[in-house]
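Protocol step 4 of 6: record predicted structures for both targets in the notebook before any analysis. Target 1:
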Amino acid sequence: MTTEIILPEMGEGVIEGTLSRWLVREGDKVKPYDPIAEIETDKVTTEISTEVAGIVLKLCVNEGETIPVETVLAFIGNHGEEIPDDADTADPAAVSNGQDRQNASMVLSTMPEPTPAAQPEVYKGRVSPVVGRIAAEHNVDLAFVTGTGRDGRITKQDILAYLEMRTLTPPEPALATTPPRTTDSTPAPKKQATPPASVAGLDDELFPLTGMRRTIAEHMVLSKRTSPHVTTVFEFDFSAVATHRAAHKENFARDGAKLTYTVYIVAATVQALKQHPLANSVWTDDGLILRREINIGMAAAVPEGLIVPVIEHADEMNLLGLAKTINDLAYRARNKKLMPSDVQGGTFSITNHGTSGSLLATPIINQPQAGILGIGKIEKRVKVVDDAIAIRPLAFASFTFDHRILDGATADGFVSTIKDIIEGWH
């Protein structure tokens, strides 16, 4: 029996994904749960697996093609089985940029030119996060964009085609008596020009941007524009934690968990957030929203860039529960097993940049959160304790916070609480 492999729904608000790489070829044999393709969304890169065994009869999507959920990716069955006549065969050798340009050109040829005088209704349709971010970055009124996706949805190709058309055919200037239509009384900041690829020398190489790299860039620029960043730095003494860890790590290992310093940092941060709820809040024009849930985002480096899986309801876990959850998320992040739901809903973020040898950093806030804690390398250094020279495991801890929400004293109070918990661990 021929089985369709479809792109599943991968989280709330995720309505499309890009097939970044096929892991099989037509004619390959597969077993249940074998990964067959890598799918990239604006949040994660994850693998799609087959639940059946058989032969890969047909690949229906090109590498680099962005498709909506429930699209048929491939057919798996036995030799000689028939495939529906309307199933298109993909060209696995197709490249991402070429496919994107082809799709954009197809949309471009059918898209009407924007008319400045036109006043369409406000767009109320549902769009994916990546489309929303592109629209915000380029100040695009989605009411002018023709959607070619399912039920008229605006896809990534649609908005890229609109931007290309807008660049090639700029609108005529409005009459002096017609005020420009804006959505915000605050002037939009001028976008810094990006050097064109043509400035590359003959021996230089252009390294194409992945979807994740673009998303990271957009998110970081948006964060710096959104909130005033201030960073305060403390030094933590991990002597008490090191003693506790040495006494308990074997017991944790028997229970299937690796007891790392990160586990203690997360546990201490959770306790401090309970005592300092402003650090777990969100700024709005109407006031501060105090988040009741404590969901800790844990920044993790992956080959494609950076991803922040979320420990949901971290305040409801003991040290063993945190260790198991952190181990699981870190493993799945490294092996492209995360789902979009694994990186949603964070209320506070931690980046343990010290694992790569960094001593001190000033992290950028993961919007719309109030702050992000950075932990440097834990190493033995000389420290004066009770007027005596001692050697202690020390690390610099930096807290970057939104100065609209927290002031220096409240931010320092929050970090001081984390420090007291770490240094007084028992």
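Target 2:
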Amino acid sequence: MIRKSRRYFNLVAAAALSAACAGLPFAASAQQEPIRIGLLTIDSGPFATYANLMESGARAAVDILNAEGGALGRKFELVVQSHSGTPAAAIQAATRLAQQGKVSVITGQTQSSHSLALVPRLEQLGVLMIDTYAQSNDLMTKSCAPNYFRVNTPDAVTTRMMQEYVKASGAKTWNLISMDYAAGQSFSKAFGELVGGMGGSIQQSLFSPQGTSDFGSYISQLSRPADALVVTLFMSDGQSFGKQSKQFGLFDKYKVVLGNGFATDFQLEAHGENVLGVVNALSWTPELPGARNATYVKEFVLRNKRRPFYTDADTMVALEVFRAGVVKAGSAEPARVRKALEGLRIDTIFGNVEMRAADHHLIRQHGMAQVVKAPNGGTAFSMRVMKPGPEIYPPANPECKAQG
């Protein structure tokens, strides 16, 4: 695995010089070079807390695929590039991965605002992007592009999964609190439309700046409750909100509390009992049926001494998808892989799934899980429902111009 793109670029140059001095054509030796995968991580702000988890998940995925033989007789190699967490910084980091790291594909810790900024630049950079992180619906419509693919679930699918809970709850009035960035705004709009279509209403929709640590004023507003609450707060923001909500007994004031990226598996230990009873959208668990999934979980635990989270699984699937495209294309060249992926059915840890040609979205499962007391005294998820992709994904939007 490469940690510094600049260092890697120097190593490649040195290899070329060495080959030339030995009288060997470097072009021939390059045929055996690894296929380089770029990983973006965030090293400051609330999302920095989980950068190491993102990296360890990607490293495990690369190791597992290499143990299976890589692709086309070549191994995969991870090139990691961190940045400060702004869209501009993400663009700079992706540019370094493409130009110095010589990667064919980029994935990693990309907020919706980062992905929306990166999409128009991917073709110029000559790389593909397989998103495992951003949730904005805009990436399915006007902002989709030929070199952009997504394997994680977008807001539209999360909203659809929540629909039956909204029906079953009997709640008519809702409060929302979201992080004030693209995915939070997108989800809030979609959820409001869902509730309105069922005869309900949104009483309050609050947005907190990224990096908020004191949620006192927001909790005061939410303490004049509606029937139900939805929380779209992630990482350290979500942990701070959960802790302070517990102190003020906020969740006890609602019949139902739903989470969107709030009470997730990789934050569960940090949340403790602060999120007991919260029902969260959750797209994958280690117990998902299938021999390949079971093997993945076993191999992951051996490498990282922890169970994989859903973000780890999404990264694994992103690389399974990329490998399938490389094999079908007979090349790691991005334009050829892009064409190969469109409409391709792929065997993954999620089962056999399709990369939809029209908008480059993986049509995969999603579910809802409740935080409950675990037998060991901690907390755990109890999966309430899991639905296959064809039942929950909206049709491809005609605004999308993904097919080049």
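Step 5 preliminary note on target 2. The chain is about 40% helix and 20% strand. The radius of gyration is 21 Å.
Proceed to step 6 after PI sign-off.
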